[in-house]
Amino acid sequence: MKSIIRNIGLSVLLAGVVFAHGSLAQDVPLLDGVTTPAENNPTVEAGKYKKDEPWVIGMSSFGVNANTWTVQVAHEAQAAADRDKRITKFVLLDAGFDQKKQVADIEDLIAQKVEAIIVQPVTSTSANASIEKAVAAGIPVVLHTGRIESDAYTTEIQGGAEHFGKVMGDFLVKELGGKGNIWVLRGLAGHPEDTNRYNGLVQSLEGTEIKITAEEHGDWQYDKAKKVCETLYLNDPNVAGIWSSGADMTRACVDVFKQFGAAIPPISGEGNNGFFGQWIADNFKSVSSEYSPAQGAAGIRAAVALLEGKELKKHYDYNPPGWDLEKVKKYYRDDLSANVWWPSELSEEQLKQFYAKQ
Question: Cα 161 to the chain's mean position, in Å?
């Protein structure tokens, strides 16, 4: 068995294989939509981390069970590792949002002498010292799903962040004509993705007359966000638009407006099958920022490229454009549950096994 996935406890996975070549050093295919910043982007020299196969690759997740997206990231990574026969073991450790646990997890992977480590940081500082230890031990570290306040890692693939939030913010500015009151639904407090997505919104609102009248953290979770939206609606239902940092929270707010029989205001969304179904059925105004769970697979590919001795860049950006309703209709699968996230690299077999409606 290659898999050592601990404490996942959820059935997940999906389909629709898509990845392509970006402007990458040595044309390494990491993920469709990934580009290479031209400035302040040093090269990881060819051969620096080359190691003979077989390989053991470790991954430290900030929280596998944070929501359905994070579960799928873990499975995307596992699937990518399974497809490469040179990887004899993939070790995934779950920090469960605990900074001390993440430190211990990375040091555990170092002690196991894995060939490469992939890190999704709990916070912008929680993993810094451990990453430095790993690199000092000759183990390359691939970072994704959150920036850190250190450059000790080997390479990073960063999606979402300011661009993700700005795609949503720009949509609201256009729909509202630059004025009106909005609610802001943020993700997990303290997580770098939450901070940077919000910064993207702030950039969009500069110079407009749009006012944030309510700002709450829904932790990217449906249940918590539904309670938040119910409270906000009961306090003051007069809102011109909603900026939601994640699709599960968007789904929750849409359901709240429907349960009160109210018109759904313009609201931002994300590549989630359940949200896509809502958008198609209710035809409200929205945009879908892309944040593929296949970043988990991209992390595996980056680690493999380093172990093969290929040259990579220090920084890769994943900043694809937002999706409109027509593109959403091409991806939506009525035969699948709401927990599917797009785009994905998981097989049709996995799709039917884990996401077929019961």
Answer: 9
The torsion angles phi and psi of 86, rounded to 5 degrees, stand at -80, -15
| In contact, 257 and 246? CB cutoff 8 Å | no
Task: Confirm if 76 and 344 have CB atoms less than 8 A apart.
Answer: yes
| Among 121-125, 202-206, 276-280, the least confident range | 121-125
Other CB atoms within a 10 A radius of the CB of residue 69 amount to: 22
Determine if the pTM surpasses 0.85.
yes
Of the candidates 92, 113, 106, the one whose C-alpha atom is nearest the C-alpha of residue 148 is: 106
Answer for the pair 9, 66: CB distance below 8 angstroms, yes or no.
no
Classify the C-alpha dihedral 175-180-183-184 as positive or negative: positive
Contact criterion met (CB below 8 Å) for 181 and 167: no
| CA terminus-to-terminus distance, the chain | 29
pLDDT tens per residue across span 165-198 = 999 999 999 999 999 999 999 999 988 889 999 9
